[in-house]
């Protein structure tokens, strides 16, 4: 059967960087091989660069971005802890569900979908939460929130509160400055702006988070005490925890080499340029953007489906006739919003023009 | 920097089948793309073949084999449940630790390392456990246990008890007959006899397990209710849970195509032939095998380090001079046992002869 070669302009996965594809086909090394340990150390260093952090515990977790979310709460929530969560999309909702499974008293601060996080409302929700959590780049709505402002406010009020930030759709596309912003626990996924196939969750955990962590979390697989003994090593060397996904880590290494060589600021500028071109083009076509003006992600554009247009039929035609995948909306916006991603290797003007041209044809505009 | 091309003859990862490497470099598809859903369905079908099961809930979990162990207990243990675990190596110990994190009252039935599971002792350990768990192929010791005999005994005594089997090192190398043997929950990893890089956990869950499952497990990422809605679909189609590692799943698909074309019985015979050649050769060299005779895994041979020989130095020379990785022992046998794997693509006479020749040289035998 012939293979299809899609142009992946949905909310992720994106088409990987060519370097990542080459990295995937490198010979497999053992997870305790000194050469692999060098690769892992380099990946952790490069992740520190894109996260903007000096955290020793910065590494790829062995699962997709959602496992990063799980690890954030599994290692920090004690039953009865108050966790304030800014909910302005599906992934804020998901955080609430995951935190609750670990026994958190979740205070969800609901925002209209399409709006950024309101720092004051989050602060006012509870005077002394154990954790405050928010999504930097809401994949479900295409909205960017100001995590730096949230971090400053949270930490100014208390040295004890931990800040969790979901950076699944931002890392590698929008600049993240975890240390400057006061992010204590950050997680991401590889299949969006980092330009690697799905399967790893880049993760960072601050010294403050380490001091306040749950020593024996309910989940063994993402127990940071055990993982740290492998990733950081100790007096006895690297302690085996589980077999690291060595091939995926080599692919991430290759993509991070490309991203850091281009420069994180330059990569972010490339995403902004591509996103602006797409968003201008959509408005020129008479379409209405969904996310609040001034808070739109360049790497993921949400746009309203015009009245009378069948969302699924348009997506189907783009896929079948043009090989282009774009995303539906989520939850209550499933059939009234489209999501168009220009992430990682796809953050380029030609991809913006391609999807605009295809949409013009299909919509007859 | 030049890439090293290792011959991976340790306890895993093994060198992947060439088909799996090709599968990895296939174009990435979206996780909701109809073409990817076909790939996923085919993978689940092929997994049912190698598992020897008709279980609808048979799929690759998005993490390494250890995530499979976590999912087995996360979805079945209620606090206070009695879980009888046969411990005849590191992975039985690990099962005990993981089950305990979910609140199990663990009854560990300790065996000497190197011995197979004693069915009667496991039965006698508790009259009515909720779960009985054992390792089919102990990666830490090279021992094969009779899961079919254990399953028959457990289910004859009670229709209610669930049987968990760790098949990380057996699946794809030794025949597994999950339905015939009464395995309710089985998990594996891709990086051993299945001949795929590490990153997925093939998993199967019986109807009996489904009826007795924890409806809202503490861990969201491996909640089988949510995962089932994506993998099996429902009236509304495939419900998004998390972004499936599409590239790894394509690689698994390619390896399973090869394995099922060769035939699972033929693949097992190939593993037996390679393992016998290696084990005979080691004994001819005057080395002593560690695992009990009659219960030795062909795909993973444990052998005692001769007196006066520095285990780590030998492994280092094999790696540096021959590019061959073999494994150390684990726990109390770390420096007194080697583990030599002939798994998946490496289950071949030439690989057996290669490691024998290299060992002869290095040991001066």
TrEMBL record, chains A, B:
The modification N6-(pyridoxal phosphate)lysine is found at residue 192. Keywords: Aminotransferase, Pyridoxal phosphate, Pyruvate, Transferase. Its cofactor is pyridoxal 5'-phosphate. The keyword Transferase applies. InterPro entries: Aminotrans_V_dom, PyrdxlP-dep_Trfase, PyrdxlP-dep_Trfase_major, PyrdxlP-dep_Trfase_small, SP_NH2Trfase/AEP_transaminase. The keyword Magnesium does not apply. Signal peptide: none annotated. GO terms for molecular function: alanine-glyoxylate transaminase activity; L-serine-glyoxylate transaminase activity; L-serine-pyruvate transaminase activity. Substrate binds at residue 339. SUPFAM superfamilies: PLP-dependent transferases (SSF53383). Belongs to the class-V pyridoxal-phosphate-dependent aminotransferase family. PANTHER family: ALANINE--GLYOXYLATE AMINOTRANSFERASE (PTHR21152:SF40), AMINOTRANSFERASE CLASS V (PTHR21152). This is Alanine-glyoxylate transaminase/serine-glyoxylate transaminase/serine-pyruvate transaminase. The lineage of its organism: Bacteria, Bacillati, Actinomycetota, Actinomycetes, Streptosporangiales.
């Amino acid at each position: 059967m012939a293979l299809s070669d899609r142009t992946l302009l949905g909310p992720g996965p994106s088409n990987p960087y060519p370097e990542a594809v080459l990295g995937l086909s490198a010979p497999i090394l053992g997870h305790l091989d000194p050469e692999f340990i060098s690769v892992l150390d380099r990946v952790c260093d490069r992740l520190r660069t894109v996260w903007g952090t000096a955290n020793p515990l910065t590494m790829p977790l062995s699962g997709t971005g959602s496992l990063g979310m799980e690890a954030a709460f599994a290692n920090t929530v004690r039953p009865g802890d108050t966790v304030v969560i800014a909910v302005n999309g599906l992934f804020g909702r998901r955080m609430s569900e995951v935190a609750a499974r670990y026994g958190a008293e979740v205070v969800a601060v609901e925002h209209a979908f399409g709006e950024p996080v309101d720092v004051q409302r989050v602060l006012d929700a509870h005077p002394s939460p154990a954790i405050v959590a928010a999504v930097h780049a809401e994949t479900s709505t295409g909205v960017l929130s100001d995590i730096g402002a949230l971090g400053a406010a949270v930490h100014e009020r208390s040295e004890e509160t931990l800040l969790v930030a979901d950076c699944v759709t931002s890392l590698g596309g929008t600049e993240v400055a975890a240390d400057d912003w006061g992010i204590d626990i950050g997680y991401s996924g590889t299949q969006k702006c980092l330009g690697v196939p799905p399967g790893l969750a880049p993760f960072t955990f601050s010294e403050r988070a380490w001091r306040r962590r749950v020593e024996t979390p309910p989940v063994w697989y993402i127990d940071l005490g055990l993982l740290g003994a492998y990733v950081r090593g100790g007096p006895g060397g690297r302690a085996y925890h589980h077999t690291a996904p060595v091939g995926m880590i080599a692919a991430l290494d290759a993509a991070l080499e490309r991203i850091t060589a281009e420069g994180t600021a330059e990569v972010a500028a490339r995403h902004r340029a591509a996103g602006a071109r797409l968003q201008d083009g959509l408005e020129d076509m008479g379409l209405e953007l969904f996310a609040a003006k001034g808070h739109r992600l360049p790497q993921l554009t949400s746009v309203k489906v015009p009245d009378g247009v069948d969302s699924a039929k348009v997506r189907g035609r783009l896929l079948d006739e043009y090989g282009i995948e774009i995303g539906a909306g989520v939850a209550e916006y499933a059939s009234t919003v489209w999501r168009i991603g220009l992430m990682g290797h796809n953050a380029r003007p030609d991809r913006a023009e391609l999807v605009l041209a295809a949409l013009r044809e299909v919509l007859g505009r």
